[in-house]
Amino acid sequence: MSKLGQIGAKLHRGEVSYDFIGHRKFWFSLSIALVVISLGGLFVRGLALGVEFKGGVEYDAAVKVTSSTVDDFSNAVKATNAKGLGDPVVTTINNTKVRVQTKPLSQDDVGRVRAAIAKEAGIPAEQVTSQQIGASWGQQIADKAILALIVFLVLVFAVIWLYFREAKASMAAIIALIHDVTITVGVYALVGFDVTPATVIGVLTILGYSLYDTVVVFDKVRENTRGITGSNRFTYSDATNLAVNQTVVRSINTTVTALLPVGSILVVGTVVLGTGPLKDLSLALFVGIAVGAYSSIFIAPSLLAVFKEREPGMQALNKRVSAKKAQTASAAAAPVAVATAGAAPRSAVPSSGVQDTTRADTSRKADRATGSAPAPSSRPMKATAAGRPQPTRKPRSKRGK
């Protein structure tokens, strides 16, 4: 078994553990700081919306794609010096087509950009298709994305409530999801990546991933806290912390396994391709998976413990557990105190017992020297075949009478 597997087994048995719930103030503070930084980047820098959301012009041209196609077409479009051109987005499709997206342009600039693309592709300008994307269409996409997010959160709240029969579990999961979305969107604002429909798909995907990880932890919490109010061994926080320790290795393994391929896609989309939906999708997935694993371990269980321990039954349980721990500690300290106080020095031990034993030994030696028999015992004796006197025994039926 590997070292990680051994650690996981010890965590599951409770032999070693980390106090996730006890350090919740630190993790809450860290999450608040991350959320504040994300919101600051969102409101100060804003999101770099793609053509699909803010409108623009999209060109398609048939071309044989090479390793320098993206840079060649990007430089060719920039050389037109069209007004309000900005930084064009160049993507390749199936090694046979190139797509160029720009900001909204005037009719004359649209023609100049089409001619530059046709010249670079080596085809007539009539074979380069272009279409204007209005901002209203992008607004419709944004509205539908927000609506999909709201519907998703409502359904998540209802499903978790029905599954766990606990509204507080739904509240903790929803807060963790909002935490994940806020940090992911903040990273997009700070990095400056374009927000495209692929970004929306990535955000909705990581919400499902984060929710799955949180539900696994909550299911273990439910298993550990079943019938907990009928005992006085553990508090709800203790049982929740044990559940997190029992599932943390699984969460780490799942997260690392998911981040490795997504990280590879992110490197390829950013370094090799330079732009396109692959980059937008992979960044949302990478950030969302990492933040989702963090929230499912450090945030959601701690929130659930905070919500549950406000209940009167859990507060009474905390008092009973605290009283039992205090009683156990005092009982463990009592024998030590008694043993220390009851130990007397050797000189203080009375010598009467020693003198009596010595006197009896001296008497027996004197009898053997004079040949006299010892004083008869008050207990009646009877002779046996060997001639040795044996004490007479009463029958069992008369014993005790």
TrEMBL record:
The Basic and acidic residues compositionally biased stretches are 358-368
Extract the ranges annotated as region (Disordered): 345-401
Entry-linked SUPFAM superfamilies: Multidrug efflux transporter AcrB transmembrane domain
- Where are the membrane-spanning stretches? 26-48, 145-164, 171-191, 197-218, 256-275, 281-307
Give an example GO biological process: protein targeting
Q: Which UniProt keywords apply?
A: Cell membrane, Membrane, Protein transport, Translocation, Transmembrane, Transmembrane helix, Transport
Annotated compartments: Cell membrane
Q: Which segments constitute the Protein export membrane protein SecD/SecF C-terminal domain?
A: 119-309
Compositional bias segments (type: Basic residues): 391-401
Write out the function statement from the record. Answer: Part of the Sec protein translocase complex. Interacts with the SecYEG preprotein conducting channel. SecDF uses the proton motive force (PMF) to complete protein translocation after the ATP-dependent function of SecA.
This protein's assembly is summarised as: Forms a complex with SecD. Part of the essential Sec protein translocation apparatus which comprises SecA, SecYEG and auxiliary proteins SecDF. Other proteins may also be involved.
Check the record and name the PANTHER family matching this protein: PROTEIN TRANSLOCASE SUBUNIT SECF, PROTEIN-EXPORT MEMBRANE PROTEIN SEC
The record, for HAMAP family, names: SecF_B (MF_01464_B)
Q: Which family does it belong to?
A: Belongs to the SecD/SecF family. SecF subfamily.
Q: What is this protein called?
A: Protein-export membrane protein SecF
Q: Which organism is it from?
A: Kribbella kalugense
What does the organism's lineage look like at the top?
Bacteria, Bacillati, Actinomycetota, Actinomycetes, Propionibacteriales
